[in-house]
Amino acid sequence: MSGTHGDGNGERDGDEAGDEARDGEGGAGGVAGGGAEEGGGAGVPGLTDEDRAVLGFAARGWPSPGEKERAIRERLGMSPVRYYQYLNALLDDPRALAHDPVTVNRLRRLRQAHRDRTR
Question: Does residue 2 belong to any structural domain of this protein?
Answer without folding.
Answer: no
